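Query structure, 217 tokens:
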């Protein structure tokens, strides 16, 4: 009986540390960063709010393709004319912690536009006359100075639209770098999970019954 408890404990400890490693390595702190809610929930819109919307893949950007989302079904379509629009979100942060901000951006025009990103008012990225191109990946790092931080995008696109998708803020630079970014568990979690699985296999061979069922998904 004690052997069964020991095997189960190692297995669940491994799973717990694995989950903790995934949370540290892969959590996007933004709400609705991929706009899959089908709207701008979680985001604040200000400035020139015209032509700022969330749409689905059925729209498409001319010259970019019929599927204008980078991943999933929805993306933000941004095209204020004459002045800048702003999209922002405030998240809980830890002072002194470095965060990695990333996003995917496409443009259907190559002049008369501007796109910028800022962190607590400090500019991370600013480009005028973004070229006409499909999705490009952008990433910047920023240090939090308090218990909350604000990520903001500012944009205008007089002749066309920007397409924005997969926006992420995390403590890992790998999040959202591709459509299905894989999270690499921390070595300690993998080690203990491996020990737990090995012990479980040994227990099965020796006739020890494990009383819990774990569903991995």
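Result returned for the query:
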């Amino acid at each position: 009986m004690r052997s069964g408890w020991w095997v189960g404990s190692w297995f669940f400890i491994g799973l717990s540390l694995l989950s903790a490693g995934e949370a540290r390595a892969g959590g996007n702190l933004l709400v609705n960063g991929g706009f899959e809610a089908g709207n701008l929930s979680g985001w604040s819109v200000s400035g020139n709010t015209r032509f700022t919307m969330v749409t689905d893949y059925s729209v498409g950007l001319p010259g970019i393709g019929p599927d204008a989302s980078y991943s999933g079904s929805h993306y933000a379509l941004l095209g204020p004319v004459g002045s800048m629009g702003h999209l922002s979100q405030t998240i809980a942060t830890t002072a002194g912690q470095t965060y990695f901000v990333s996003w995917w951006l496409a443009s259907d025009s190559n002049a008369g536009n501007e796109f910028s990103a800022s962190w607590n008012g400090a500019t991370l990225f600013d480009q005028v006359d973004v070229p006409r191109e499909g999705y490009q990946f952008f990433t910047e790092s920023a240090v939090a100075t308090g218990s909350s931080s604000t990520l903001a995008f500012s944009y205008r696109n007089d002749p066309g639209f920007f397409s924005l998708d997969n926006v992420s803020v995390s403590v890992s630079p790998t999040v959202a770098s591709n459509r299905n970014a894989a999270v690499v568990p921390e070595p300690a979690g993998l080690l203990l999970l491996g020990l737990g699985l090995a012990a479980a296999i040994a227990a099965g061979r020796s006739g020890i019954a494990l009383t819990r069922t774990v569903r991995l998904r």
